[in-house]
């Protein structure tokens, strides 16, 4: 009975994490890949994308709730959070920043578990270069491309890359190109002229890129963990709010950051406790 209860709690946590990943994947400034890393499911997900059936059979209690949660987050929660972004993007981003920062202690622990002194030069180099790259993207000039089948295919490709490369926000890049709004409107209408090319681009990119990343994780695990950590921290530096409309928004942002941080930390502590038992 106790074992079943723990199993249910763990699956509920994975479902919630999947919902947040699905939500973050489509929101401006947020990277689905970063949230996968933050919640400790990045490596299993890369393995799943390369060997879906074998991985699902071995870890169905992880993948089933994560995938269902991701679908719920993408279809339902994204609209709720999009409304929050419209009301106050600063407060919404503070919440997601807190969620990511709350997982950093566990990420640091995992990253240093096997070889505590190796790969830190890779971490520093990745942190600096990715920060410069994301800064260039952020300062890009918005263009007005006419959305069509091939551009929606491109949207799927970029979206897929953002799930594999932590820190790359597909939504931010698509906003600069003027493709984000027509894409999200098409998804909201369930328009097949948008959904089909989007899905093709996403699936093809995921299948190809995940194989490369999975191989690197297996052959150079320590260095890859440092590189991924660098991507995550640089993305946090990029999205963290730095200006506020007033004292009220500052206090609300601080409260949302704290709530996100404590929620993520508590989820990590629950999983650590369950592993120890």
TrEMBL record:
Membrane-spanning ranges: 12-40, 60-77, 84-105, 117-137, 149-180, 192-213, 225-244
Keywords annotated in UniProt: Membrane, Transmembrane, Transmembrane helix
UniProt KW Membrane keyword: yes
InterPro entries, per database record: VCA0040-like (IPR007163)
Record's keyword annotation contains RNA-binding: no
Pfam families for this protein: VCA0040-like (PF04018)
Protein name listed in UniProt: DUF368 domain-containing protein
Record organism: Massiliimalia timonensis
Lineage: Bacteria, Bacillati, Bacillota, Clostridia, Eubacteriales
């Amino acid at each position: 009975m106790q074992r079943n209860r723990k199993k249910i709690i763990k699956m509920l946590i994975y479902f919630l994490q999947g919902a947040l990943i699905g939500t973050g994947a489509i929101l401006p400034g947020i990277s689905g890949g970063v949230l996968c890393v933050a919640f400790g499911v990045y490596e299993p997900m890369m393995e799943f994308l390369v060997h879906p059936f074998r991985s699902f059979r071995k870890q169905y209690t992880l993948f089933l709730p994560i995938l269902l949660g991701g679908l719920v987050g993408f279809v339902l929660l994204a609209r709720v959070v999009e409304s929050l972004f419209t009301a106050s993007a600063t407060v919404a981003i503070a919440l997601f920043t807190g969620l990511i920062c709350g997982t950093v202690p566990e990420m640091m622990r995992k990253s240093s578990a096997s070889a505590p002194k190796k790969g830190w030069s890779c971490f520093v180099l990745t942190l600096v270069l990715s920060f410069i790259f994301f800064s260039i993207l952020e300062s890009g000039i918005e263009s007005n491309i006419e959305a069509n089948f091939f551009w929606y295919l491109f949207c799927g490709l970029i979206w897929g890359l953002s799930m594999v490369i932590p820190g790359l926000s597909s939504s931010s890049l698509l906003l600069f190109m003027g493709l984000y709004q027509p894409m999200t409107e098409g998804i909201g209408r369930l328009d097949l002229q948008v959904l089909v090319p989007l899905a093709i681009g996403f699936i093809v990119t995921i299948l190809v890129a995940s194989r490369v990343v999975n191989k690197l994780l297996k052959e150079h695990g320590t260095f890859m963990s440092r590189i991924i950590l660098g991507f995550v921290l640089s993305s946090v530096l990029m999205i963290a709010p730095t200006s506020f409309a007033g004292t009220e928004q500052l206090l609300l942002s601080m409260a949302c950051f704290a709530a996100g941080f404590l929620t993520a930390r508590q989820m990590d502590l629950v999983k650590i406790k369950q592993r120890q038992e």
